[in-house]
Write a structure and sequence with these properties.
Helix content is about 30%, strand content about 30%. The protein is of the alpha+beta class and about 800 residues long. It is globular and about 85 Å long. The chain starts with 14 loop residues before the first helix and ends with a strand. This is Glycogen debranching protein.
Length: about 800
């Protein structure tokens, strides 16, 4: 296997913290659909793991790959042609070839490599690329090593194909893509291109001056690409490689959606500060790795957990004049979503993403206010700055719940003050505009859009309940007693209604929807026909049963309906379900009816598609009721899909399709582990922390260190270690900053015969609901022991 080639001009240094993170796969014969990302907050590049740049995509048809600088695309791709100046020198007489299909692909936390073994040219080549932070460009490095044992003189031809074009949903700004134009600056040795209608620019050059170059619209490298681009090639003659040695050439690709001067300045920054830019990004990724460092018995889950921390950074999308926040999924959904982020940001909180969670919610709120203005939270915001979907009902409630959790972790009261007016408007929108019959169940699409059933859905109802609780807590904090009482009363009424009217006792499950029989009857034959065409016999059977129930029902009568979509887990995910109902539902959800080989089915009727978010919600729901063995099973199912498509990543659709990396996957990997297993629940504003550790049965020694709590003057860092044995359990924890109180809730031993000591001294405890409660004021470094005496 070709190893990384030492480079005395640019010593690749990851350091001991990042060195362990390297995933790879052989790529000969690999499908072009096996994609990867070279991630950056301003630019990113998507291509094939085999080294190619295929046309693909449906948002911007055939254009979702290549090099992007949102809100525009820069390149379809680039290709290097290598020629040996000694004609016939190689054993088979071949003297020149394009780098096309690589032998292997290697993924690292913030860069990637394609490795080639070119037998005809007796060369090994590594292509390495990384996108520096805050830079509108990419650095691509080729390392060429001689295998012939003789000195070499090579001609290199770098060809780049531009496609300067707008992001999806830009037509609302009357943006029209023009043909690209290009030229060669011979004196500077650069290829420059621009869009004929817009101030979009691209610059390509290297760490040395090119010998010559040319431009052509019909000039292509190894394969053709679609679009209105133009190609430019730069030739570098007589590149010397010593016998058995190597030579490195760095290419700099820069762009701008403002001016050529800006693109040239970026080019110069990349060229002149290559090492510093690398080191800055390396150090920042070290800091990501050093936050929330787990040591748990399941080393595969631990490894995937660590990679998910890096994935979070791959989604940071920053666009001048629009905003900065977490995108959703690569390659098709790199922009911002309301629904996705209400899951994603919770997964981000416990691994150090407090500021990014706030930034993302602020961006979503700003776009929602501009597009709607009535408290409704948007679904989708393009990097063009335009809202593509004003928002489903569930998203407003989910946003409010998420904002409260973000506040609890950050303690930033100014952030909450900015959120609160929209929270009040959002609750009014949900319970007035979207609840015309006044039954507290908002109408409108939720996460699962059941076509034609724009009715009262379980997820919208459950998240509205959670949003009302959040609203009550916010109102109390701001001294609005009337609002607190109103929201609290409404939450109680809504919770009771969900648990009474949407619970189907004969099924032991919550319903998907509350709807009039006539509305279901108007769609049921369409659903049955689709299931038949799909060959989903289980779905046909279930739908036929619903049709039979419809006969004799008053079309106007409302009742709950079960379509077995994964969102029926939301009452357990949020803790709304009473324990008896929750356990019945979770037991059934864990069976083959709802859980497949890679996770929770999107539909228990169809039983075909699985997704990390449906499995993640199941993991959270199980953990919510202290079913940690069952929760770990779901976490492991998510982790089992690691490396199935992209080395170092998890696909959106399980096991290996859809987006090759998806932001909300972190919800199932981090939230149940950190908030329920390690039991970390901060109230940073009050400088208070609840620790309620509960672990799977076969986990005995585990720790989580450098967990960030709070921002600004309320910032703190937590380390927690747990050791369990037959004689008792030891809990060690440390808060680095003074002034916080800690309430520890430890599991009560089954035989009720135990002694608790705090820092070696007996301590007074309270026992309630199966927990031993210990309160510590002004906590620092402590050890709690629960010793069994029976």
């Amino acid at each position: 296997m070709l190893q990384t080639i030492p480079d005395n001009k640019f010593d690749l240094h990851l350091g001991p913290v990042l060195d362990p993170y390297h995933e790879m796969r052989a790529t000969r014969g690999l499908s072009w659909q096996d994609l990867y990302i070279c991630a950056g907050n301003r630019t990113y590049m998507v291509g094939s793991q085999n080294g190619g740049f295929p046309d693909f995509g449906h948002h911007v048809k055939l254009e979702m790959g290549g090099l992007w600088l949102h809100p525009i695309k820069l390149l379809d791709g680039f290709w290097l042609h290598i020629g040996d100046r000694e004609a016939g020198a190689a054993s088979n007489g071949s003297t020149a070839m394009w780098l096309t299909e690589s032998d292997s692909f290697h993924n690292y936390p913030f860069y990637n490599e394609h490795r080639y073994r070119l037998e005809p040219l007796e060369l090994e080549v590594v292509r390495r690329q990384f996108c520096p932070d805050d830079a509108e460009g990419i650095i691509v490095t080729y390392i060429l090593r001689d295998l012939s044992g003789r000195s070499r003189s090579l001609d290199l031809n770098m060809l780049a194909r531009t496609d300067l074009s707008p992001v999806w949903f830009s037509e609302g700004k009357d943006i029209v893509d023009g043909m690209d134009e290009g030229r060669i600056d011979k004196e500077a040795g650069l290829f420059l291109a621009k869009d004929e209608r817009n101030p979009w620019h691209f610059v390509l050059g290297a760490d040395r001056k090119s010998s010559r170059g040319k431009v052509g619209r019909e000039m292509f490298g190894p394969h053709w690409t679609s679009g209105k681009g133009i190609s430019g090639s730069l030739v570098y003659e007589k590149v010397s490689i010593p016998a058995g040695g190597s030579e490195t050439i760095h290419f700099y690709m820069a762009g701008s959606n403002r001016s050529e001067q800006d693109a040239l300045q970026t080019f110069a920054n990349l060229r002149d500060n290559r090492e510093q830019l690398w080191e800055a990004k390396r150090c920042r990724y070290e800091e990501i790795a050093k936050r929330t460092v787990l040591d748990i018995p399941d080393k595969h889950v631990q490894k995937v957990f660590d990679w998910v921390k890096f994935h979070n950074d791959w989604f940071v999308r920053e666009v001048p004049d629009v905003g900065r926040g977490m995108g959703a999924g690569h390659p098709e959904y790199p922009w911002w979503f309301g629904c996705d982020n209400s899951y994603t940001l919770l997964g981000l909180l416990s691994v150090g993403g407090l500021e990014m969670a706030q930034e993302t919610l602020s961006l979503i709120l700003k776009a929602s206010e501009e597009a709607n203005g009535n408290g409704r939270i948007i679904h989708e915001l393009s990097t063009s700055g335009l809202v593509a979907n004003p928002g489903n009902t569930q998203e407003t409630a989910h946003f409010i719940q998420c904002a409260w959790e973000v506040f609890k972790w950050t303690g930033d009261i100014d952030f909450l003050k900015r959120m609160y007016p929209a929270v009040k408007k959002g609750l009014s929108w949900l319970l007035e505009d979207m609840d015309p019959d006044g039954d507290l169940l908002p109408e409108g699409y939720g996460i699962i859009e059941i076509e034609g059933l724009n009715v009262e859905l379980i997820d919208s109802a459950v998240y509205t309940w959670s949003a009302l609780l959040a609203g009550a807590n916010m109102a109390e904090l701001f001294g609005e007693e009337e609002a607190r009482a109103n929201y609290g009363q409404l939450a109680t009424r809504l919770g009771d209604k969900i648990n009474r009217d949407l619970w189907i006792d004969k099924e032991g499950l919550y319903a998907d929807a509350m709807a009039p029989a006539g509305k279901i009857a108007s769609r049921i034959d369409i659903y049955i026909e689709r299931a038949q065409n799909f060959g989903a016999l289980d779905a046909v059977r279930d739908l036929e049963a619903i049709k039979a129930e419809l006969s004799g029902l008053d079309p106007a009568s409302e009742r709950p309906w079960l379509f077995k979509n994964w969102v029926i887990n939301t009452p357990m995910e949020t803790g709304l379900a009473p324990r008896e109902q929750a356990v019945r539902a979770l037991d059934r959800m864990a069976t083959d009816e709802f859980t497949g080989p890679w996770g929770t089915y999107l539909s228990g009727m169809y039983r075909d598609q699985m997704m990390t978010i449906s499995t993640g919600v199941q993991a959270v729901a199980e953990a919510r009721y202290d079913r940690m063995n069952e929760s770990l099973r779901m976490i492991r199912l998510i982790a089992s899909t690691f490396n199935k498509r992209l080395p170092g990543s998890i696909s959106e659709m399980s096991p290996d399709y859809g987006c090759f990396v998806q932001a909300w996957t972190n919800y199932g990997m981090t939230w149940p582990l950190m908030t329920f297993m390690f039991g970390i629940k901060p109230d940073a504003y009050r400088q208070s922390l609840t620790l309620r550790p509960r672990f799977p049965d076969d986990w005995n020694d585990m720790s989580a260190k450098q967990v960030q709590l709070g921002l600004g003057e309320r910032a703190n860092t937590l380390d927690i270690e747990v050791s369990r044995s037959g004689d008792g359990d030891v809990y060690r924890f440390e808060l680095q900053q003074p002034g916080w109180s800690v309430n520890v809730e430890l599991p009560q031993p089954a035989d009720d015969a135990f002694v608790v000591t705090l820092d070696g001294e007996p301590v007074t405890t309270a026992v309630r609901e199966g927990s031993i409660a210990v309160a510590i004021a002004n906590a620092g470094k402590h050890e709690l022991r629960v010793s069994r005496t029976g």
